Amino acid sequence: MAVERIALVDYGAGNLKSVENALRAAGAGNVLVTSDAEAVRAADRIVLPGVGAFAACMGALSALPGMVDALDEAVRERARPFLGICVGMQLLADAGEEHGRQRGLGWIGGTVRLIEPADPSLKVPHMGWNDVTPAARHPLVAAGEAYYLHSYAFHPADPADLVARTDHGGPITAAVARDTVIGVQFHPEKSQAYGLAFLARFLAWRP
Predict the structure, then answer these.
(1) Which site in 58, 125, 154, 189 is 20 to 30 Å from 131, CA atoms measured?
(2) Residues 66-115: tens digit of each pLDDT
(3) Could you give phi then psi for residue 87, rounded to 5 degrees?
(4) Dihedrals φ, ψ of 186, to 5°?
């Protein structure tokens, strides 16, 4: 059986080495860190990390020649399993409101908005370990604790796309999913045993 090709998209907006190391520790045998659209189009699985502001990340992704089209073809037309991490998950939305409204990929309807905790003593960004609470049955989602670092949160338009939540002065989306796409707000690569188990499930996923 051929070793699957995992494309880890390099668009200058993720802690790539940590994600690469975590994928290998979870069992990935062939991880390609790439900014080449053709390599992404040919991959068996795709991971889109992300650290930073929504608008800057979307701009950087769009600036890679052919990348958005390659992602769209691989994931939406050819049904390749896809994982978005942190801002890589937020980019799945229709739009983000950080530093002005910016269009996202539009794969999962919704908007990314500033976290506004009901308890004013809670600080933003939402940073550190917090729960992952399943909101719907999904083969990749398990209850546990993971590491978060973000100031903006995904508000899905369709509640059916919400598969996990956490709480920071009110409910916050921890994971969204549709078809062969899953996005997580937490950082699996920083979430120790929980994160590695999640990545192992992603690598074994046959949606």
Answers:
(1) 58
(2) 999 999 999 999 999 999 999 999 999 999 998 889 999 999 999 999 99
(3) -65, -30
(4) -75, 170
Q: Is 189 a catalytic residue?
A: yes
Cα–Cα distance between 204 and 22 in angstroms, integer? Answer: 15
49 within 8 A of 11, measured Cβ to Cβ: no
In 115-170 the beta strands, taken as DSSP E runs, fall at 126-134, 144-150, 152-156, 162-167
Please, what CATH class does the domain formed by 6-204 belong to? alpha beta
The verdict on whether 187 is a catalytic residue reads yes
- Dump pLDDT digits (tens) for 112-138: 999 999 988 899 999 999 999 999 999
Euclidean distance between CA atoms 120 and 109, whole angstroms: 29
Pick the catalytic residue: 126, 150, 168, 187?
187
Question: Pairing between strand 45-48 and 82-85?
Answer: parallel
Active-site entry in 20, 57, 86, 126: 86
* pLDDT the model gives residue 1: 58
Contacts of 15 (CB under 8 A, 6+ apart): 49, 51, 189
Is-contact 202 30, C-beta < 8 A?
no
Taking alpha carbons only, the member of 22, 11, 17, 8 closest to residue 147 is 22
Cα–Cα distance measured from residue 31 to residue 18, given in angstroms and rounded to the nearest whole number: 12
